[in-house]
Write a structure and sequence with these properties.
The protein is an all-alpha fold and 66 residues long. The chain has 3 helices and no strands.
Length: 66
């Protein structure tokens, strides 16, 4: 009944859930990529690029804010 009586509200809820899922997927993918590159640097002894360091710092700050 709620869906039939409030189609706009249901749409907005679904839209927000979809946006949240996309953002979570994007963040998870970036974290996996960062971890993979970090481990590769450790294994090879190669210094991480500036871009990788920036991503590591962003992830660290994001995790501290959670």
């Amino acid at each position: 009944a709620f869906f039939e009586e409030n189609p706009v509200r249901v749409y907005l809820i679904m839209k927000q859930l979809s946006e949240n899922l996309r953002a979570t997927t994007r963040n998870y993918t970036e974290a996996c990529r960062t971890l993979d590159e970090t481990l590769r640097c450790i294994e090879t002894g190669q210094a991480p690029s500036r871009e990788l360091q920036d991503r590591q710092n962003r992830l660290r700050l994001d995790s501290q804010g959670s």
